[in-house]
């Protein structure tokens, strides 16, 4: 069977996938299958990225230069969000993320495009905007090859253009408007 878009359901948990290859990788979790093994020590991992991280420990390659960086990194795993916005109550892992978030409340737009003069709240939004001027289109559809400036445009393309009425059109139906989508992330509540 090819890896073309098809509805594929996991028999163990019922989760739906649009690619058979993703379903096969997912099912390895239920089987406890660990296809990525360390050569010297035999420890197995489901995901290759975890093997690479584990190997770094064995060869002495420490990704965190000092204890401070390690502690900051571990906050992601604990779920702790110690930096709280006093305006809306939302909490963040890092103070820098809180500061960037607070610009939403103040309306401060300190990042200016040198090409057209438009200003943005964050540097990342400015960089995304500058793709209009540079022509960079980093988000590419794996099925048709069309490229997009923003990831959200690729998502819309995948949801609405490639499969508007196919056999998957009833896969995920919006309870508010009745519109159907191939992926749950296409539903209005997921955006």
From TrEMBL:
Residues 8-35, 83-110, 111-138, 139-157 form the C2H2-type domain. One of its GO terms (molecular function) is DNA-binding transcription factor activity, RNA polymerase II-specific. Its main location: nucleus. One of its GO terms (biological process) is positive regulation of DNA-templated transcription. Keywords: DNA-binding, Metal-binding, Nucleus, Repeat, Transcription, Transcription regulation, Zinc, Zinc-finger. It comes from the Eukaryota. GO terms for cellular component: chromosome; nucleus. Signal peptide: none annotated. The keyword Nucleus applies. The keyword Transport does not apply. It is found in: Nucleus. Belongs to the krueppel C2H2-type zinc-finger protein family. This is C2H2-type domain-containing protein. It comes from Chelonoidis abingdonii.
